[in-house]
Amino acid sequence: MHKRILLMTIAALLVCWAPVGMADDGGGFVTGTATAGAHISDSTDNPVRVGEYVNLEDFEDVMADMVLDLFGGTPNTLYTVGLTYRDNSTKSIDFNLWTKNYISADFGYDSFIHNMDHDYLQNMQAKEASVDADGNFVPGGKQIYHTDNDPMGRYFIQYEKFHGNVKVDLPFMEGGQVYGGYGEQTRSGFKQTMTIDHCAFCHVESNAQRIDQRTETWTAGIKGTVGKASVQYEYTSRDYYDHTGAPERRWLNASHPVNGGSEEEFASRDIFEDVTLPYGQSADSEKDVHNVAMKVDLDRAGTLKGSYTHTKSTNDFTNIEGKVDAFSAGYAVKLNPNWRLTARFLTYEDKVDDYFVDLPNFRAYDTTYGNLDFDWNRISAANRTVTQGDVNLNWKLAKRKHLNFSWRLQVIDRDAMAQNQTNYIFDGINPGNDGATLVPSEPYADKTTINRLKLRYNARLGMKGNYNFTYTYTNVDKPYMNPWAGCEHSLQGTGSAHTGGAAEGRVYYYQRQRYGNGTNMPSQAHQFALRGSYQLSPRTSISAFANYAHDKNDDLNVYEYTRDMFTPGINLWTAPSDRLLFTLGWDNMWVQSNANMCPPFFDG
Amino acid sequence: MDRKITRPVAPLLWLLAVSCVVLLVLPPSSSMADTGNYVGSETCLECHDDIGPAMSRTVHGNLQAYQYPGEATGCESCHGPGGAHAESEDPADIFKPTADNGGAEKCLACHKTGTTMNWGTSTHAENDVACLSCHQIHIGTYGKALLKAPQEQLCESCHQDVKGKFQLPSHHPLKEGFMTCTSCHDVHSGNMQGIAEGEMVRDACLNCHTQYAGPFIFEHSPVEEDCRICHDPHGAVANNLLKQNEPFICLQCHQPHFHTILAGWEGDYSAPPGVVDADPGYEGLSGTSHYDSMKRSMLTKCTQCHASVHGTDLPSQTITGQGRALNR
User: Fold this and answer.
1) Which residues of chain A neighbour B71 with C-beta distances below 8 Å?
2) What is the CA radius of gyration of chain B?
3) What is the ipTM of this complex?
């Protein structure tokens, strides 16, 4: 309801304000631009892929395009009004007001549609091949099937955003101002939500899930300057609500797909079975941010700034909390007419609550080979202390010619870049579990150190053009990766057979003895960027760019990751008259990268 | 419910109350007297009459005395004392701020707080971008922020490679007009990542994609690390701004599912004994399979089963998976 009130208020302001400006003969004015047009969207293939933000209900229809921009004022105010209308779900309105009476404000609303794919899951249909006692191929026990409960579904999110901000000057303080704002984003529509039941067979089920989510953001702050110091404090509160609740589905009775449908054996592998449960849930959450910042002007000695930010995030479903404390500092000084130095520093600590995941014992009925404990303590991958700093030197070589050199150092010290799975090693030490020794879930916590060097040359060609060249080299020690991405240790020498007998179940655990690293993050990266633009005539200009990047990671233990990317482009603008503009552009992107793939064991 | 109303509103009301009291107590602003070689804007406009009308339609042309940091007001607050120039009419006798001669310092004399507070240490300032590169002072064409041109055009004039990415099939709705570059970036920021001060990159994403904020019990670690490990926020060929299509983006950090290696039955099959494929939950148990059907099922799109790839609080089904397969 408050959305409508806000909209009506804005509309009333718009209606009232413009005539006031026009009627005022003491200096009032209104200027504006009205644009009217039409558009049509069509496609011979999946319209979602080419019309991501087009209302599909209007596909193939001619739709109006209307834009109105007003800029006006009275002796005591200035204001702008903007209206855009494309269709009922795609429109915007904004209003900005500045007054001589200490107050300024802005309000806005816009909405648009984002179309999403419908996955028909048709690839999810398979039956395993098996061999019978006579050596003939026959249909096996394991199979995959799917159910799309909404086969005709069209999925989209309707985004609606409101914002309103009010600023009040504090005239007793230089630059003094208090301000407050409210923003709201709602997402409504339907999306496809999937989940899997593997109680007996792999059954992927898809449903239409209604979306009714809202994010509210409140902001309040105060700022001003006292002497050489400028200070500001800002508080932000963000709340997220999902009003729909999660969809539910029935997980079936667990039964082994091969071993005669044994229920006990398969049920004891699952946390739940024969139950209706929710899935695709998005938990309500809240976030509070306090930020205080200060800048001191030291005249010729430069500018010094610093800030502190405290953030607390809470998952309202689990009450898990995350806290971030961040300190930043910066210094900029002109060393002499030709040299400028900038230095920045940032450190923050991110800490999310640990969470103990209490699970039933695996195959609890089988006290010889089973009854294994997979409980684990989840240590958040967000936990980290980050310290980074950079120095930038800008050298004015000559008039309109600058050379820039910068160095950045960043150290990311994580509690858990990744966390491995609980495992059992069959070494004969623990007779209670057929010689299986528990290997608990452990975090991988290596520290990442990033060094980045950047050189940039920037020059202007008189008043007609400019060009620049940038080279960046980045060296990363222990970049982010999954340390257990693939490649199991060999069974050779373990004393375990992987077929037949009671030991068959042991093979399951070798899957998680993966040792191969995997990532798409480089340990070394080279980037070259060249850009230039030139004014061919007062009404025609041309610009071009070419970027090349070569990334590689030779720190990985089973392969070397590489990525090469080349992106050139050229653009031409020409304006035969003040009211006519032609643009012609060509952009290209070429990317090549590799990855390692180890086909895994199958546990039987 | 109380929290939702009282917590955010309380400081806002407090600040507004303070400001209202201040407004009531303080006298209205008064004009500043010209001193020294200052001659006042009226003198300037005697010759520069082309600038006056346009300037009067900008915030800069309507400032109150309390909004100036020094004694000078009007034109001379930026251009310095105009006495000598008014006398000689020589352009050399007046300061004309440009991108090359410290024009930013003139702007920052007033714009000391807010988003411009960190301009001195910003990446743009480092790279010779000046206030006047994007803003014009005398004409309020666009009303907001005195931009020389619509924001996207300004940003794209330098960041042409980014402009190219926004033409790719999957992109944020920038060219459609529902976002601007400053929806994510703080162009005046002193932050090394070009986003809001004191925030990590993922916070910029979560401002709109709040449903992925968590913190969740069952995480996908790259979501906590940096959204850009999987997504290119400016645009991509693959759907959902993915840097590569599934499963290739997943296979860079994970090995294929262990069922992938199973050989598929070639031919028709019916529901297993004891199961009727018309029973609720079992529809579809008879069908046709191919040699590669297991591979096609298990190696086409990981998120068909691992749908909660951004994290969840609901455990997945298997005990050995420890609930963290992101299936729910």
Assistant:
1) none
2) 31
3) 0.89
